[in-house]
Amino acid sequence: MSPAIDDIEAPAIARPPAHPPLATTNPLLVNALREGKVDEAALRKLPRSVREYQEAQNELIDDLLDIEDAPSNPWDAAPDGEQSARARFATRASFMINVLLCLIKYVAFIYSRSYVVLASAVDSTMDLVSGGVLFCQARAAARQDRPKVRDKFPTGLSRLEPVSVLVFAVLMAALSLQIFYESAEALIGGLTKSPKRPEAGALVIAIIVTVIGTKLCLHIWCQRVAAKGGADTGPVQALADDHRNDVVSNTWGLAALLAAALGPGASWMADPIGAMTISVFLVYMWACTAKEQGTILVGVAPDPAFHARLTYLALKASPALVGLDTLRVYSAGAETYTVEIDLILPPEMLHRDAHDIGQALQDRLEADAAVARAFVHLDWEASHVGEHLGRPSLARGRGSSLDSPGAPLLHKKGT
Q1: What pLDDT does 63 receive?
Q2: Which of 49, 207, 239, 338 is least buried, going by the fewest C-beta atoms within 10 A?
Q3: Is the bond preceding residue 20 a cis peptide, omega within 30 degrees?
């Protein structure tokens, strides 16, 4: 009588530690990378287009060789706590100052009754609302690893940010169109009836000049913080760009206000035309933002350099690696990607060893902050029909079952 399965003592299996993950160095590949670099003297002799291409190749080669210098973690250095704190302070200070500037812009509109000042104030308001939306999204994403949240959203909340920005972009574009409509109505009314000039008193001018000067200082400060690099500097660079755009738009608004209030004759038209110009610019910018976020939601591939780094890292998975069958990378959020990779390992390799290689590669891929999730599939040959290919019914033909002799799954590898 055969013993029960529960009575059989399982053999002791010594699993390798999960960290540091397995890795290997291919001397031929490393030498090929080093030989592929072009020195500065040779670069200067190349045509401009070829030189720019080769400079990009040199940067990619240096990036790949950096992986060899840090085999235990090829992606992220230890975070710079001081730089992170500086970036967070810049973000919070910018938000608080933006609140004050937005309030005094509405004061300027009340005293001036200028459409261009109204357009600028609405732009500042929507910037504050967008900051609040992204803040709420960040708090929600920070809770995504809780069991209840993970059960409800198995893939996490990485797509919450592009969804939020997309909805906000539509609302912002609609509001800008409304300002454009009211400005056009005021322009037509002024042409057909008596025109109305805005008031450009000393208080209004002082407020707008203060806004421009403050925004310029914020741009310089945030730009310097972002230039130092480190963690959490991406939002600071975005703030620096936003402050720069506000300097341009507010300067344009001030010029239009002064021309409309103090200029002769038909110069009153500068106010509604200036507001219409700002509105058109805002609609265009938010339409570009909506397109970008929509592309992320669909699932866009990363730049070739990021794809090359993932490929190089996969080639270091094990000395026994036969090859790579498939590497598919697509966006999983605003700044994160999902990675699907098929490794080809020897057919005689033990399942235990193959699993450890795949698990180690998955850990190394997910060590990158830009990788939301990595899926590693292990195979022993590459002559079969590719997995998935975006068609769920690929595993079996129409009208066939998995038990039929002609089922593709049964013929995939001669089983």
Answers
A1: 78
A2: 49
A3: yes
- What CATH code is carried by the domain that includes residue 238? 1.20.1510.10
Residue 152: is it exposed, middle or buried by C-beta count within 10 angstroms (0-12/13-18/19+)?
A: exposed
Residues 258 and 335 in one domain: no
Instruction: Tell me the DSSP string of 320-385.
Output: T--EEEEEEEEE-SSS-EEEEEEEE--TTS-HHHHHHHHHHHHHHHHTSTTEEEEEEEEES-S-SP
Range of the domain at 263: 81-298
Per the CB < 8 A criterion, the answer to whether 365 and 336 are in contact is: no
Q: Looking at the structure, do residues 234 and 117 belong to the same domain, yes or no?
A: yes
Q: What is the rounded CA–CA span in Å between residue 299 and residue 331?
A: 5
- With a CB cutoff of 8 Å and minimum separation 6, the contacts of 342 are 324, 325, 326, 327, 377, 378, 379, 382, 387
Distance between CA 115 and CA 136 in Å, rounded? 31
Cβ count within 10 A of residue 231: 17
Q: What is the DSSP string of 15-60?
A: PPPSSSPP----HHHHHHHHHH---HHHHHTS-HHHHHHHHHHHHH
Indicate whether 322 belongs to any domain. Answer: yes
Same domain, 278 and 394: no
What pLDDT, in 10s, does the model give residues 167-200? Answer: 878 888 888 888 899 889 888 988 888 788 888 8
Residue 52 resides in a domain: no
Among 222, 239, 230, 166, CA closest to 369: 230
Give dist(CA 317, CA 25) in Å, integer. 9
| pLDDT tens track for 292-331 | 888 888 888 888 888 888 988 888 888 888 888 888 999 8
Name the DSSP letter for residue 70: -
Rounded-to-integer distance, Cα 346 and Cα 357, Å: 12
